[in-house]
Specification:
Elements lengths: L7 E5 L7 H15 L3 E6 L3 E6 L2 H11 L17 H14 L8 H6 L5 E3 L6 H9 L12 H8 L1 H33 L5 H8 L4 E2 L10 E2 L4 H10 L2 H31 L7 H12 L12 H37 L4 H5 L1 H27 L2 H6 L4 H29 L6 E2 L2 E2 L1 E2 L3 E2 L9 H46 L9 H11 L7 H17 L8 H23 L14 H23 L2 H11 L1 H4 L11 H5 E5 L18 E5 L11 H31 L5 H18 L1
Antiparallel strand pairs: 1-3, 1-4, 2-3, 5-6, 7-8, 9-10, 11-12
Helix pairs in contact: 2-11, 3-11, 5-6, 6-7, 7-10, 7-20, 8-9, 10-21, 10-25, 12-14, 12-16, 14-16, 14-17, 16-19, 16-21, 17-20, 19-20, 19-21, 21-25
Protein name: Anoctamin
Membrane topology: Multi-pass membrane protein
Keywords: Cell membrane, Glycoprotein, Membrane, Transmembrane, Transmembrane helix
Length: 726
């Protein structure tokens, strides 16, 4: 029955006859009727208008673009055009139909003339295949039916799932390398010379962690912490960081090959987004004049200033987290509760990480409400330009939100806090945190672990539960009204479309940026998996587990909980590829800095080759890092304490104590060893980044972006076409 095939449904409240909203609605529907659209009205608690476009619109579309769609599958019997193309064309015309009041559908929806406009999930064979092979938990480890996804949701959604599937597959290798790194660290958990020295340092008395009521402490008290640090921070971590820099490049190069194959199979190589948009504008209005390219330096300057202000706000939030940690540390160390005072530093780090996660959630909500402002200022010419501009700005915002606190912990924590007798203080009162004598890398490990685990559990549960609960509530609200309407009335034959339209209306709303949010979530996760991965080798494993669940959760949301997305055509993942390449470069810089600055790898190597007993005597049986801990601690005299520092009575007799730094015992200036280590850190950073970037470039050159068979296929097609023309 041709009559049952409706392209779109418009939903409106029941307005009073003659009201402004009712007049505006009638004007819009009259404009559609003039274009030859068939409109069907069904009344329930809302007004539903089914819209079907005339056939001549699609003939025009095919003729103008000489479209290869007619060769593709998923066409309904009477039509030689795929359903996805049909919905896309109708959606464009609906969005660009102008009433006599110069209002478009977007304006009418803002004024509540229409409440919703959506294509329908219909009982098609392809939908049943997707529900069976994709949108259910029992097929979680099976290959995705990408071709079917494309035939139902369009190329853009299919490319997202193809990319996500490819990324997840390659994460297996990164996860195995991360596990191997942790396993290598676990073998030295108790045997590491550096952690052994900390565990045996029963007579090394360290400076208090706070000014009031904090006792000196013995270095051996932190034995377990030291063992955990050296499980993360060892030679295997350096190898893993280089591996991940190469992995990020290989992943992108292999994806480019995969995309080239997919684009060729889907006949997308000759497709041009701008040409399609111009064709649709002309089909909608044959008198349409193209909107020309424009650039306003004034508007760009305003956007740049707003972006810088936003980044400053995010840096301010990072500062607030630093202040929280300093204050929390001071309060926890003075706490009556033994557990809090004993593990004050670890608890301050963990609660700080939870607080950082909460700021990420809050700032994401703020972002969703202010996201469109830069777009209005710049007024992009086409939808893809608008999407690209939006992507760059929002990614920068989310990146700074997620990483500002991590950057502080990785590169500033314990380096800007001064030294005993001359501490740097917040508001002249609270001391900044110090690093543990075995290094700062465990703080970064804890922060990343907490954020990744919370993002992947709470955020994912909310991402699934909110649409599910919303869908259930919408269903509940509908049915009682329907039953009360039918009481005492003769039951008349219900229109077969009514139930279908109501079911679709009860689903959750989707918008043009629904897919953008999915991309953003995975790209931020990719940043965590690559940029500071040297500090958290388990990140790829967590990402792998998350993605396996994410793919099927997104599938269930799209098929069962949300209205049908408007299918869009695309031949690649757009600007996200440049974003991923930028992250790949940042990953080399980030991991180089983590190993050079955050890790204790360089100080240990400098000690081994310049200051250890091995340099003075030829001890083949001795571990060259013997004596490293004592060498890395500086001496402080109690009489040099700041006046307001309280020393507990039991430590009155202690004349000197130790703290982590390379300073002279008399005037507290930096020692020669500090400058040796500083030079070694810089040398390592330059060497690591140049080697890693060279390897990335070689990998990019070695793996061609387009496979030979794809190039040959395109070549043969060109040759064949020219031969036929001749």
């Amino acid at each position: 029955q041709n009559e049952e095939k409706w392209d779109f449904v418009l939903v409106s409240d029941i307005h009073e006859m003659g009201s402004e909203k009712e007049i505006k609605r009638k004007k819009f529907l009259d404009e559609l009727s003039k274009k030859g659209f068939t409109i069907k009205k069904i009344e329930d608690t809302k007004l539903f208008y089914g819209v079907r476009a005339p056939q001549h619109i699609f003939w025009k579309y095919q003729r103008i673009l000489a479209n290869p769609d007619s060769r593709q599958q998923n066409s309904s019997p009477q039509q030689d055009i795929p359903v996805t193309t049909r919905i896309r064309v109708v959606h464009f015309i609906l969005q660009n139909t102008v009433t006599s009041d110069l209002e478009k559908l977007h304006d009418l929806m803002k004024k509540k003339v229409f409440e919703a406009a959506f294509p329908l999930h219909k009982k098609e064979e392809i939908r049943e295949i997707l529900k069976k092979k994709w949108a259910r938990w029992r097929v979680i480890f099976k290959e995705q039916p990408i071709e079917e996804i494309r035939c139902y949701f369009g190329e853009k959604v299919a490319l997202y799932f193809a990319w996500l599937g490819w990324y997840t597959y390659l994460l297996i290798f990164a996860a195995l390398a991360g596990l191997a790194t942790v396993a290598a660290g676990a073998t030295v958990f108790s045997s590491s010379q550096v952690s052994k020295e900390i565990c045996d340092a029963n007579n090394t008395i360290m400076c208090p962690l706070c000014d009031q009521n904090c006792s000196f402490w013995v270095l051996s008290d932190t034995c377990t912490y030291a063992k955990v640090t050296h499980m993360i921070d060892n030679e295997a971590t350096v190898v893993f960081a280089i591996f991940m820099a190469i992995w990020a490049t290989v992943f992108l190069e292999l994806w480019k090959r995969e995309r080239a194959t997919v684009a060729t199979n889907w006949d997308l190589y000759g497709w041009d987004e701008e040409e399609e948009e111009l064709a649709l504008q002309l089909i909608n209005n044959s008198q349409h004049e193209p909107r020309l390219y424009q650039h306003s330096y004034f508007r760009s300057t305003i956007v740049l200033i707003l972006a810088l202000l936003m980044i400053m706000v995010l840096i301010g939030i990072a500062h607030a987290l630093v202040i929280y940690r300093a204050v929390a540390m001071a309060l926890f160390t003075q706490s009556e509760v033994n557990l809090l005072s004993k593990h004050a530093d670890t608890i301050a780090v963990m609660t700080g990480a939870v607080l950082h996660y909460l700021t990420i959630v809050i700032m994401t909500k703020v972002r969703s409400h202010t996201a469109c402002l830069p777009g209005f200022l710049q007024e992009p010419r086409t939808f893809s330009q608008r999407e690209n501009s939006f992507t760059v700005k929002i990614f920068l915002f989310q990146f700074f939100t997620n990483f500002s606190s991590l950057i502080y912990i990785a590169f500033f924590l314990g380096r800007i806090n001064g030294h005993p007798g001359h501490y740097v203080r917040i508001a002249g009162h609270w001391r900044l945190e110090e690093c543990h004598p075995s290094g700062c890398i465990t703080d970064l490990f804890i922060q990343m672990a907490v954020i990744m685990l919370l993002k992947q559990t709470i955020s994912n549960i909310m991402e699934y539960l909110v649409p599910w609960i919303s869908h259930q509530l919408r269903k509940r609200q509908k049915h009682p009204k329907k039953r009360s309407m039918m009481l005492g009335e003769e039951e008349e034959a219900e229109d077969p479309c009514k139930r279908q339209w109501l079911n679709n209306y009860e689903l959750n709303e989707v918008n043009v940026f629904s897919l953008f949010n999915e991309y953003l979530e995975i790209v931020i996760q990719y940043s965590f998996t690559t940029i500071f991965v040297a500090a958290f080798p388990l990140a790829p494993l967590l990402a792998l587990i998350n993605n396996v669940i994410e793919i099927h959760m997104d599938a269930i949301k799209m098929m069962r909980l949300c209205r049908r997305m408007v299918p869009r055509k695309a031949k690649d993942i757009g600007i996200w590829l440049q974003v991923l390449e930028t992250i790949g470069t940042l990953a080399v810089i980030g991991n180089g800095l983590v190993i050079a600055i955050t890790s204790d790898f360089i100080p240990v190597q400098v000690y081994k080759y310049m200051y250890s007993p091995c340099t003075r005597e030829n001890h083949t049986s001795m571990d060259c890092s013997t004596g490293y801990i004592n060498n890395s601690l500086s001496v402080f005299h109690i009489q040099d304490f700041e006046p307001h520092t309280k020393v507990l009575p039991e430590f009155k007799g202690v004349q000197i104590k130790k703290y982590r730094d390379y300073r002279n015992a008399d005037d507290y200036t930096y020692t020669v060893q500090f400058w040796h280590i500083f030079a070694a850190r810089l040398a390592f950073l330059i060497l690591f980044e140049h080697v890693a970037l060279c390897v990335k470039l070689i990998a990019a050159w070695y793996i061609p972006d387009v496979p030979q068979k794809v190039k040959n296929r395109i070549l043969r097609e060109k040759h064949s076409n020219l031969q036929n023309e001749l």
